[in-house]
Design goal:
Layout (H helix, E strand, L loop, with lengths): L21 H4 L8 H13 L3 H6 L12 H13 L2 E11 L4 E12 L2 E2 L2 E10 L2 E10 L5
Length: 142
């Protein structure tokens, strides 16, 4: 997928990528809040930036592994085969070292809707937010 720094950021901010998540992905800045981390991780998945996903994953996360080659390949395989359509933030519970962000990710694989709602938990480790885990939430029937 061709993507320019002048394209809109995949996180849904309506800002250009270079003015939004790019500085996080390039490690020029670090997200100041769990919400910024959540959005930058969504963008990283959309842009196949496995290095950023690995960097921002807490060591106690169940996917965390020292087998970086395999982990990297798993992330890239998922990202390359998924269309990241939209990110909607539903709820934020913000605190200084532990925060929660509930979001809906609208995703497609081979025209199949694999969208989900997750309540993600983030911990601040040595001043840097990390994704530790998440809980899927059933979407209420309309």
């Amino acid at each position: 997928m061709k993507f320019s720094p002048n394209d809109n950021c995949p996180c849904g901010s309506l800002k250009k990528y270079k003015k939004c998540c790019k500085s996080f992905h390039d490690k020029i800045n670090f997200p100041k809040t769990a919400l910024e981390l959540m959005k930058s991780r969504f963008s990283a998945f959309a842009l196949c930036n496995s290095e950023y996903i690995i960097f921002t994953t807490h060591p106690n996360n169940c996917d965390f592994t020292l087998d970086l080659k395999s982990w990297n390949n798993d992330i890239l395989n998922f990202s390359k085969n998924t269309k990241f359509e939209k990110l909607e933030i539903l709820e934020i519970i913000d605190d200084e070292i532990e925060s929660f962000v509930t979001f809906k990710a609208t995703l497609f694989q081979d025209k199949n809707d694999i969208s989900f709602i997750e309540k993600s938990r983030f911990l601040k480790v040595e001043g840097i937010w990390k994704y530790i885990d998440g809980q899927f939430i059933e979407e209420e029937e309309k």
